[in-house]
Amino acid sequence: MSTTTPTATRTAIVTGAARGIGASVARRLAEDGLAVAVLDLDEAACKPVVEGIEAAGGRALAVGVNVADEASVQAAVERIAEELGEPTVLVNNAGIIRDNLLFKMTADDWDAVMNVHLRGSFLMTRAVQGYLTKAGWGRIVNLSSTSALGNRGQANYSAAKAGLQGFTKTLAIELGKYGVTANAIAPGFIETEMTAATAERVGVPFEEFKAAIAAETPVARIGKPDDIAHAVSFFASEGAGFVSGQVLYVAGGPKA
Predict the structure, then answer these.
(1) Does a structural domain hold residue 255?
(2) Is residue 129 part of a domain?
(3) Is the pLDDT score of 138 beyond 70?
């Protein structure tokens, strides 16, 4: 098939899109002219994002899905293809944290994080890849983290985010000949409900927590969800077709 399909006819899927980074990504892709499926565990929580996109003249669909459940993922992707259009852009953003030091971390804490981040990204990508290869054009963007380099109290999260980088590079190798790229974005500290919860967990007021992080960041500020959305927009664009298998650290300064 042609690889010059107009962007306006394309459909993107964004997981974990009811709030935070995912919501910003969904809105940005809609601004770029894509129809956007807004996915999260609670479908009702996706409605405000969808309504905002539609109010701005875009097309969007709220879909409830458990990304770690095979049947739920398959049903969600089939519904999106039928109601919104066959997807050619996938952003695997859904994530959770279950932080603890290794000796306190339970097997359930480990499994929960692995299931959402790694199993979820695998199931979503496997369910979508057929549409991408059939179209002869596709973009997969996986959300990693600077925690992939190691972070105290995050053995599970760090391992999952590092695993996503290997997953991304393998997708790039396997799917490149079909016109599909796969890249990862590794955010640094981004102001979201999740990072606010981290500050609360360690007993530091969020404003103080953010100020301390900003003081250690070369650009002297913390990240915003729109910073990540901008990077996703690039990877999902027509012009990024020769960029694949890359990990972009969006962290306000250099990382290893």
Answers:
(1) no
(2) yes
(3) yes
Tell me if 58 sits within 8 A of 36, measured CB to CB: yes
| Residue 128 dihedral angles phi and psi, to the nearest 5° | -95, -25
| From 131, 157, 178, 249, active-site residue | 157
The torsion of the CA quartet 55, 196, 39, 32, rounded to 10 degrees, works out to: 50
* Alpha-helix residue ranges (DSSP H) falling in 32-154: 43-55, 70-83, 107-114, 120-135
Q: pLDDT of 86-129, one tens digit each?
A: 999 999 999 999 999 999 999 999 999 999 999 999 999 999 99
**Rounded-to-integer distance, Cα 249 and Cα 256, Å:** 9
157 labelled catalytic: yes
Residues 111 and 184 both lie in one domain: yes
Name the nearest CA neighbour of 76 among 128, 119, 141: 128
Lookup: tokens for 9 = 């006819």
Q: How many domains does the chain have?
A: 2
**Co-location of 119 and 47 in the same domain:** yes
Residue 203's domain comprises: 191-222
d(CA 119, CA 253): 30
